[in-house]
Amino acid sequence: ARAKKVADLFAGCGSFALRLAAKSEVHAVEGDGPALAALDRAFRFASGLKRVTAERRDLFRRPLTFKELNAFDGLVFDPPRAGAEDQSKQIARS
Q1: 91, 69 contact by CB (below 8 A)
Q2: Average pLDDT of the chain?
Q3: With a threshold of 0.90, does the pTM exceed it?
Q4: Strand 25-30 and strand 5-9: pairing?
Q5: Which of 14, 21, 33, 72 could make an SS bond with 49 (beta carbons 3.0 to 4.6 A apart)?
């Protein structure tokens, strides 16, 4: 079954989000403002994509909670090499 709504955590400039948006709604979460601006520009110039929303949020300081994660059917989790222990714990709970 295809996921209707996907969360892309540590979305960066949208490499995964924009590909996923061909088939699913995507909520991209990223702490870097310029990266989110690049995602927004790319989305505006693309065609045929489902809805993409973006949220600027520092997932190291304020990870999505398991309750927030339960709103999604799918998840992309691509943290920096330093890892994201607190976010990983919330994913495990969801």
Answers
A1: yes
A2: 93
A3: no
A4: parallel
A5: 21
